[in-house]
Amino acid sequence: RKEVEQDPGPFNVPEGATVAFNCTYSNSASQSFFWYRQDCRKEPKLLMSVYSSGNEDGRFTAQLNRASQYISLLIRDSKLSDSATYLCVVMNRDDKIIFGKGTRLHILP
Amino acid sequence: EAGVTQFPSHSVIEKGQTVTLRCDPISGHDNLYWYRRVMGKEIKFLLHFVKESKQDESGMPNNRFLAERTGGTYSTLKVQPAELEDSGVYFCASSQVWAPNTIYFGEGSWLTVV
User: Fold this and answer.
1) Does A9 touch chain B (CB under 8 A)?
2) Is the CB of A87 inside 8 Å of chain B's CB atoms?
3) 10 Å Cβ neighbour count for B54?
4) Residues A21-37 pLDDT 10s
5) B105·A45 Cβ contact <8 A
6) CB B107 within 8 A of CB B2
7) Beta strands in A15-93 (DSSP E)
8) Burial level of A7, CB count in 10 A (0-12/13-18/19+)?
9) Which of B51, B103, B107, B111 to mutate to test the interface with A (most CBs of A within 10 A)?
């Protein structure tokens, strides 16, 4: 079983729609969680950290469920510029980062 | 402030040749990481430096890969001899030891072995 698993997609979503991504992780001792965004042939960039209490940044909402070892990202009112690959990222106690394979999102005009 | 810089941005070499990738972390960042993504796979950890010391090199695929960070500033990742399966993008990232969650990535070095 992979340490971090994501649905690779692609998700083809019309502009303005809401889209949700999920991610599961296998190491119960993992301590920090993130969503990164990666555009084609670019480096990963931090989108947001994920906390158990849930956190929101504009149109983006992230949620962590430690009991189920599950992380989610919700994008509301999607824009064309949201098209990218979204990487679920987990940091273990030794500061090692584990990446999911990423979920590709295409926002359709 | 300059971000994490990597050189070269693209490299095409023949199987059996040697390539050296360089990473300059953000000034003051003692944590330095190397990651790579090969075709169709997820980004995978290679190794982690804290200053000049290798904290964790469990992700290094084999002894054809050698990473150094002499002086605790920039780092190099040498692949010798390169094989076809080494093709991919190599990312460097850095962070401050007291803020390991805030990690900055370089734009990557794209390596093609032919």
Assistant:
1) no
2) yes
3) 13
4) 999 999 988 989 999 99
5) yes
6) no
7) 19-25, 32-38, 45-50, 55-57, 60-65, 70-75, 84-91
8) middle
9) B103
Name the H helices within chain A.
none
Residues 6+ away with beta carbon under 8 Å from B60: B46, B47, B67
Model confidence at A92: pLDDT above 90: no
Asked if A37 and A47 count as a contact pair (C-beta separation under 8 A), the reply is yes
Q: Could you identify the residue written with the tokens 């430096």? A: B49
pLDDT at B1: 59
Over the stretch B62-91, which tens digit does the pLDDT of each residue have?
999 999 998 889 999 999 999 999 999 999
Tokens at B19, concatenated = 């390539």
Distance (Å) of CA A20 to CA A35, A61, A74, A103: 12, 9, 4, 10
Contact between chains at B33 and A91 (C-beta distance less than 8 A): no
SS (H, E, C) A36-58: EEECCCCCCEEEEEECCCCEEEC
Give the DSSP H/E element, type plus range, for residue B83.
none
Give residue A81's pLDDT band: very low, low, confident or very high (50, 70, 90): very high
